[in-house]
Amino acid sequence: MLQVTDLAFSYDTKVVLKDITFSLKTGDSLAVIGESGCGKSTLLRLVYGLLDADSGTVFWNDQTVTGPKFNLIPGMDSMKYLPQDFDLMPYITVAENVGKFLSNIYAQEKKKRVDELLELVEMSEFAHTKAKFLSGGQMQRVALARVLALEPELVLFDEPFSHIDNFRKNHLRRRIFSYLKQRNISCIIATHDRADILGYTDQTLVIKDAQMLALGSSEEVFRNPINQYVASLYEEVSLLPAEVLGLSEQFQKEVLVYPFQLRVVAQSLCPVRVIQSYFRGHSYLVEAYFFDRTIFFEHPTFLATQTTVYLQYVV
Fold first, then answer.
1. Hey, what long-range contacts does 191-196 have (CB within 8 A, 24 or more apart)?
2. Which of 9, 10, 237, 253 is packed most tightly, with the most Cβ within 10 A?
3. Ranges under pLDDT 70 in the chain
4. What pLDDT is attached to residue 245?
5. What residues contact residue 10 under an 8 Å CB cut-off, 6+ apart?
6. Residue 257 is inside which H or E element, if any?
């Protein structure tokens, strides 16, 4: 189990993180989200022991995680950290990169393990290709395999799918998170992509201005965002008066609404004027004016600019 308590860190006089507290059970996964520069990567490096915290503690299975001041070689043996720069060795092959930290004493077992991981990340055909000849997405897949080679107890992923093509990313994401669950490996993933969070992570931690803004189950944080900032990390979001949505008794004065929670009806208390329709494949994301504010909703067909329609809240 991972336990982080009152963690704080600064670069010179700039406070990057303060009062960060959370726990992670064995086999569970945590998403860390927030705008660029909010401290997501720094948090991963603190948990791994690459940085010395100003204050607070990190415990992994009752062992204190300490940084470079206390360790000649920073980092925890039972953890593996995947940074955004991959850190592959360019002049050795893909297979050699994946097996770099595996023992050569048991050559057959090593080869079997490397082959298994290359199949997991769909890089088997590049096993004998030198890393310098790979694309950015291919390098990222090799880096994922290498991080998993020694079967860590906790993995720390920093934007692990950011360079991978969309057509392969979804399938790979499912395989990686399924692999982690099957082997009871804990995971913390810092990401900007909501697809990395919903359906895969157990908890979500939101950071803004160096502090924790929200922490809870990934579904709960998404469905009940505490403010517009949190909601906007997932989707375009609208702020509408509760009374025009027929929600004045259940909600506060104004309500945060995702586009999929609004639909066009024949008549309602929420008339809007269309600004633009954006095709998204399965539907259109429609930008519109509700009096003096901009809102967004989904619609199955294109709506022309200046069209007036009426919206209703969908539970």
1. 191/31, 191/32, 191/33, 191/157, 191/159, 191/160, 191/161, 192/33, 192/36, 192/159, 192/162, 193/159, 193/161, 193/162, 194/222, 194/233, 194/234, 194/235, 195/169, 195/170, 196/31, 196/160, 196/161
2. 9
3. 248-252
4. 84
5. 16, 54
6. strand 254-257
